């Protein structure tokens, strides 16, 4: 589906945004109707206004009372959009504390529905793009969000490594990328032993998808974890933990959405953009890698496997080492990597790691400005010894269970050497319960924050 704004044809019905009282421009009949209908201006509340002949002549949308704190709900107008009748609508007056761009983006998000397996419709109401907003940019952001959601929502029987490759090739073709794929035993021939080890037990061969665009300018390399299903391997997950593992390729889905946004908004012009996706299934079979195995990485570092369910950092490590060989200006990893990140910050607020203070501040600020909050966590040096098992260079799953997101980030950082700057996002990629503009299911995290920050970071 393609998100869209209503054409500005003069037929749009008026919308009034209500915070602390009905707008003065309403006539007496409309005010009486709103009061009689019990309209209080609550967050996302809608009151349709009838005309003299019974047709709808406008609507009120409640924004809730101003509290001076961040709102408890993002994208309130997406909730309202789902309640409005089909047709074009125009906001007549913007309260001073309301961001028209966020409201317009909320209307776009409300149009999403995952309809691959049954008929599903998003909101039918369409907003006339407010004056002064970059409508094309907002549509590009929503299109990328829909792409990411669709990929995450698709189950592994229809989105294994081969289908993820097809999806990546489709993004590449539409956005001017060249594509190279290294598959199966060729991974061993080309020195990607960790990707091969993790994926060799799957029915579909593991592969490394390599997309490149541009040949001049600063270099940005995005690496997304593409574990299309994660059983946990021989350290098998319990059923309650395995049920959502179709989303373990959320990092890959997110970097594909981000790459598409960078191209659609023009931010990719004048840069060398690369996307690497190690696409595997962490399956169980006689040839699955085992707890206690010591594996050699592309970088040459040996890794003791103390838990086969900590496979994401292994496939990322080889892809990162490959990326770092070209010495990019920025190397960024995105992965549904640890449960520890969710324990620390919950499903809505993904942590990110970055050693550059100015860059980290810019990423955080861009996340807030683009309605995509992220929270910085530390590469805490004293924990480095936790990922050094003694028998090998690195441990993929330190015992004790403490600081799991930090130790995973420290593990990955060992493979970023060569890149001028590195940032890692430990995303969840899933909306556990419906919220305005975000139905239960796959969700994009961190991509809009990076879209806002990267143009300055790459100067």
UniProtKB/TrEMBL annotation:
One of its GO terms (molecular function) is metalloaminopeptidase activity. PROSITE patterns: CYTOSOL_AP. Pfam families: Peptidase_M17, Peptidase_M17_N_1. It comes from the Bacteria. Keywords: Aminopeptidase, Hydrolase, Manganese, Protease. One of its GO terms (cellular component) is cytoplasm. Residues 307-314 form the Cytosol aminopeptidase domain. Coiled coil: none annotated. GO terms for biological process: proteolysis. Belongs to the peptidase M17 family. This is Leucyl aminopeptidase family protein. It comes from Paracoccus aurantiacus.
């Amino acid at each position: 589906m393609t998100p869209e704004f209503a054409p500005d044809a003069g037929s749009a019905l008026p919308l009034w945004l209500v915070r602390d009282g009905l707008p003065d421009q309403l006539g007496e009949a409309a005010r009486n109707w709103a009061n009689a209908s019990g309209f209080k201006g609550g967050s996302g509340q809608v009151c349709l206004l009838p005309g003299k002949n019974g047709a709808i002549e406008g609507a009120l949308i409640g924004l809730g009372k101003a509290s001076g704190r961040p709102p408890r709900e993002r994208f309130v107008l997406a909730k309202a959009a789902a309640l409005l009748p089909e047709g074009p609508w125009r906001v007549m007056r913007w309260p001073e504390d309301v961001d028209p761009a966020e409201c317009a983006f909320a209307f776009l998000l409300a149009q999403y529905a995952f309809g691959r397996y049954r008929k599903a419709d998003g909101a039918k109401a369409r907003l006339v793009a407010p004056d002064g907003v970059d409508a094309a940019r907002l549509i590009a952001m929503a299109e990328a969000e829909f792409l990411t959601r669709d990929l995450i929502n698709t189950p592994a029987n229809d989105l294994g490594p081969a289908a993820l490759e097809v999806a990546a090739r489709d993004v590449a073709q539409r956005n001017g990328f060249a594509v190279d794929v290294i598959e199966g035993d060729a991974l061993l021939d080309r020195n990607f032993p960790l990707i091969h080890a993790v994926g060799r037990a799957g029915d579909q061969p593991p592969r490394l998808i390599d997309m490149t665009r541009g040949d001049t300018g600063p270099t940005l390399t995005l690496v997304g974890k593409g574990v299309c299903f994660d059983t946990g391997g021989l350290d098998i997950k319990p059923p309650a933990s395995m049920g959502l593992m179709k989303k373990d390729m959320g990092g890959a889905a997110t970097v594909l959405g981000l790459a598409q946004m960078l191209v659609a908004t023009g931010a990719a012009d004048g840069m060398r953009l690369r996307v690497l996706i190690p696409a595997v299934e962490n399956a169980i079979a006689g040839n699955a890698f085992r707890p206690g195995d010591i594996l050699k990485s592309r970088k040459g570092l040996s890794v003791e496997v103390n838990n086969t369910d900590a496979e994401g950092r292994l496939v990322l490590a080889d892809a990162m080492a490959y990326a770092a060989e070209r010495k990019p200006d920025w190397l960024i990893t995105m992965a549904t990597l640890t449960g520890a990140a969710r324990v620390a910050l919950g499903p809505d607020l993904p942590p990110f790691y970055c050693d550059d203070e100015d860059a980290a501040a810019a990423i955080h600020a861009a996340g807030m400005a683009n309605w995509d909050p992220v929270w910085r966590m530390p590469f805490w040096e004293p924990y480095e010894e936790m990922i050094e098992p003694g028998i090998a260079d690195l441990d993929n799953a330190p015992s004790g269970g403490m600081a799991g997101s930090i130790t995973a980030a420290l593990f990955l950082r060992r493979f970023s050497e060569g890149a001028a700057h590195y940032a890692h996002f430990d995303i969840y990629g899933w909306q556990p319960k419906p919220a305005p503009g975000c139905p239960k299911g796959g969700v994009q995290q961190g991509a809009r924050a990076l879209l806002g920050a990267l143009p300055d970071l790459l100067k």
